[in-house]
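Sample log: Vacuolar calcium ion transporter.
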Amino acid sequence: MSANANNNSKPHRGGDERTPLINGSSSLRDDSGAENHYPTQSSDTMVFLFNSEHTPGKDSNNIAVRALAHSWHVTKVTLLSNYVNFLLITVPIGIVAGASGWNPTAVFTINFFAIIPLAAVLSYATEEISLKLGETMGGLLNATFGNAVELIVSIVALKDNQIEVVQSSMLGSILSNLLLVMGMCFFFGGLRHRGTSGNGTEQTFSSVMAQTTCSMMTLSSASLVLPAALYAILDQSDSKEDEKNRSILILSRGTAIILLCLYALYLVFQLRTHSNLFDAENQIDEEQEEETPNLGPVAATMVLVVTTLLVAICAEYLVGSIDDIVESAGISKNFIGLILIPIVGNAAEHVTAVVVAIRNKMDLAMGVAIGSSIQIALGVTPFLVIVGWIIGRDMSLHFETFETVAFAVSVLVVSYTVQDGKSNYLEGAMLLGLYIIIAVAFYAVPTSAI
């Protein structure tokens, strides 16, 4: 009898007509009527595949099991970091397409979409490292890796002597941040926080930070206007083409060195001596202070390295198909560089900026939009001039007149828009309208004309 009592006191774990076929756990009753839940194989599988906080096997005593579990955990966390990562399936397809010599249009399109999730992964890994390094080093890291995709694509294009694409992509990245990203931030943030009818409100941000960064952008605009003006003067004096190019290269390389020094000084100003003026770096709410990284520094660094290599491969095939695309589709190189490539490279930053603007964190949104533009104008573009100097490519700061005018006008409009430290959806619509006008203009103008 005692044996029967003991058997009856234990909950029955076998299946019967009440056992659920699909469930995260089995719900069983003991003699007291209480339910006991037992994990099933289905729940273990879901945890292994989709739980970004825990992966079974990470605490195993077996080194091989622990290493495999940790590798899968890093992969899983990275894949689940962004909804756009479902496009990662296009990465191997794009590499196969480029290596197998598929149709140039297919190669360009597939690798175009492959770079979008890779840019998101780069952004995620950078943020994970920044959480460990703190504000100052984290800001410097974001300054370095924030525009990694554009830098990689531009270096590949520069090596391929596609200087027009490099210049257009640099200018396009600046314009997409100043007009497209900031315009979307102002527009959607302004709609979300527009106030009541007849009693509208505006969003606010640090006017000191905006004015400082706009001054830097005006300086970068001047660095493009001067080479164009010098070229026009030399052109009127009937100078030989070699002499004109030599003069432009000397001016561009000297200016690039000065701009890089100013950018380094700007980083010290922003991150060290006057960090209190840049609320984008200090506007951290309680949730963000308690945020802990999902990846360790070593794992995040490995993700950065692997992703950077994949971006370089996809960029190689993307740039290699541009000439054929221009001939077959009739799209100008300037439109590809100015509009398409920057949208790919800045996709993750675009989403981040708009989301924080809707949450009424305009200092953070402005930091992403204007800060990234300064990185390109004062850091990446001069760096590419120096890289071209080293590898024997005549990369200069002499942009085409049409491109220079578009950039100067955009900086002027943005400066007037942000100088009061307030924004609304009408200002956002104006910035978006200017960006669309510029995009249509470059789409309409054939490569031969520019």
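Observation: The first strand starts at residue 25 and ends at 29.
Observation: Confidence is low (pLDDT under 50) at residues 1-39, 279-289.
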